[in-house]
Amino acid sequence: MRANMIKSKQSLIFLTLCLASYIAFVLLALYLRPAPLANFLGCLALLIYMATVLPSIFRSTFPNQRSNKILIWLLKKRRHIGITSYVLASNHALLMVIQKSINLLTPATYIHYFQGILMFFIMTLLAVTSNDWSVKALKKNWLRIHQLTYLIIFVLPWHILDKMSLHWSYLTPLELLITVICIYLFIKRKTLETKTS
Q1: What is the C-alpha to C-alpha distance for residues 110 and 121, in angstroms, rounded to an integer?
Q2: Calpha distance 35→41 (Å, rounded)
Q3: Domain spans of the chain?
Q4: What is the distance of C-alpha 121 from the center of its chain?
Q5: According to DSSP H, which parts of the chain are helical?
Q6: pLDDT in tens, 73-120
Q7: CB distance 24 to 88 below 8 Å
Q8: Model confidence at 43: pLDDT above 60
Q9: Burial of 52 (0-12, 13-18, 19+ CB in 10 A)
Q10: Residue of 74, 69, 38, 36 whose CA lies nearest to 55
Q11: Are 150 and 194 in contact (CB under 8 A)?
């Protein structure tokens, strides 16, 4: 009973912080140039997202790191880290919509921003189901849904290259390097799993 109350309180605090971040970033967008802020938030979302996928990939690829305390901590906190990434990605998307005056009612928008919308859809699905109730209700399907997170790894470089073409910032090479390393490690993990099965 007490554990449930603590979890509920933590969830309420977390949701309050998420809502406050939306309000803060919208207000910042009104007073600052939103593009650099939006790009910075996108980079932060990417880095924090990587903290959700790399620990399991790293532990499978390098078995001698299974007892690494940092990896264990990241795995335990993966849901909260993932939702933090989702909040940052949402703010990134919101600021880009404001800055570029994107019309969300036209089909052309969904074609032009396909990669971003696909990743946002997957992240929304993951965020909504990142709770104990969903794990119990969805059972084996919960794991299948959360395997979609690995699709984001392959869409990210496409999104970065497409949206940052001809106007790279100092963050762009770093983002691409991180995504390429993650893709390499993911492929290596799958290769090792195929050999051992």
Answers
A1: 12
A2: 10
A3: 2-196
A4: 11
A5: 2-31, 34-61, 69-76, 78-100, 107-112, 114-128, 132-138, 140-146, 149-164, 172-196
A6: 889 889 888 998 999 999 899 888 888 888 888 999 899 999 999 999
A7: no
A8: yes
A9: buried
A10: 74
A11: no
